[in-house]
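Quick one, probably user error.
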């Protein structure tokens, strides 16, 4: 819910209304899959602006998604670095508002591995850079960064 509040505040400061399409999708959550492979139906933000997705052969770290929206109210580039929250919600949501959104499943603690060069390239071209971390990773990432 905090991510939604931050997004609404950011969009409000840019003069953009909050308007997003949802679509039903069958899925197994990243934590739930540790206990069951049973799929449920959830309502996710439509990825109608998705233009490219590069998956990894194993695991999630390094996944890349690119979005383009020629009718976006905010004619800016956003680089979003994060985890499953960014992958399934924040990146698609931001694609409704920003003309270009690049998402990479990576974080600073891991030096953005295995996509260091791509992060550097997109960072240089971005108008905004957001790094998101789920609560369960935040303390571990913070402690590793401080030590």
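Nope, works fine. Designed sequence:
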């Amino acid at each position: 819910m905090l991510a939604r509040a931050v997004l609404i505040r950011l969009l409000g400061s840019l003069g953009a209304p909050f308007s997003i399409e949802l679509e039903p999708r069958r899925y197994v959550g990243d934590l739930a899959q540790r206990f069951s492979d049973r799929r449920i139906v959830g309502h996710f933000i439509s990825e109608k602006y998705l233009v490219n997705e590069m998956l990894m052969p194993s695991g999630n770290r390094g996944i890349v998604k690119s979005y383009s929206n020629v009718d976006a109210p905010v004619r800016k580039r956003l680089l979003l670095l994060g985890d499953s929250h960014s992958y399934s919600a924040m990146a698609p949501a931001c694609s409704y508002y920003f003309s270009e959104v690049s998402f990479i499943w990576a974080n600073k603690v891991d030096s953005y591995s295995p996509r260091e060069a791509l992060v550097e390239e997109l960072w240089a071209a971005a108008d905004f850079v957001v790094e998101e971390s789920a609560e369960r990773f935040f303390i571990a990432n913070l402690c590793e960064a401080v030590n």
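The chain has four helices and seven strands.
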